[in-house]
Amino acid sequence: MSVDSLSHSGVGAHFESGENGSCPLIRFYDPSYVRAETILFHSGTREVHAILHESLIFIAQAPEDVAEAFKVHEEVLLTADHYSGKKINLRARIAHS
Question: In terms of pTM, does the model score above 0.70?
Answer without folding.
Answer: yes
